Amino acid sequence: MAHSAESLMRRALELALRGVPGAFPNPVVGCVLEKDGEVVGEGAHLEFGGPHAEVNAIAAAGDRAKGSTAYVTLEPCTHFGKTPPCTDALIRAGVRQVVYAVADPSPKTAGRARALLEAAGIAVDAGLLELQAKRQNAPFFKVHQLGLPWVTAKWAMTLDGKIATSAGLSKWITGDDARRRARALRAEHGCVLVGIGTVLADDPSLAGPEGVRPPKRAVADASARLPLESQVVRGAGAVETFVGVSRKAPEANVRKLESAGCRVVPLDETVDGVDLRQFLAALAPHATSVFAEGGSHVLGSLFDGGLVDEVCAFIAPSVLGGALATAPVGGRGKSGPELAERLIEVRSEAAGEDLLVRGLLKSGYGGVLAGVTRVAPSAV
Question: pTM here?
Answer without folding.
Answer: 0.86
